[in-house]
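ingest -> validate -> predict -> emit
validate: passed (alphabet ok, no gaps, 184 aa)
predict: started
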Amino acid sequence: MGGKLKIVFVLMLMMLTGTKVFAQDIETMINDQALRKQQELADKKLARRQKEEQKKAEKLAKMERIDTKKSETYTVPVYLFGISAQFGDSVVYVTNLQMVDNAQLTKKYDYLAYRSDYSSQFRKYIADTYKIKHPVTSVVFEKNRKKALKRFNKILKRYENNKSMHLMQVTDDKFHFSVMNSID
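emit:
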């Protein structure tokens, strides 16, 4: 039965049984029904969002599982930078744009092999240096210096224009990415 139909049915039963029906009772029933409907919609929206996030996580996990055997990678210089943000903090840490001479990319996807290890290097540095328990870090890379510089400046601009965020530059003398190689 629909929500409004239920309310009408309950009101008719109350009237037939001789129960007094007050306007406040009717208003309460209508408000309760509206709240239940809002909660159902919110629950559906949350379930949909969780499903989308799960799909994204599975896609990322699949990318991380890419076989990075020596025969399926090639060595090339790449330009990369790291970014770290804490959800409860207004400080964003960004490394300078750095060149890594012997980075490995997968042949099939042109994906930075051991990308999570580069991110872990930066995460460990941020956690140890700034005493942050669980920093969220990411590494952005490009083979082309011009493209890398464009992405780097775009991120810098985003945080510099945000008055609620404080951008902290991590210079090369403080942190530098180390080359990650396979252990064969």
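Residues 12 and 45 are 34 Å apart (CA to CA).
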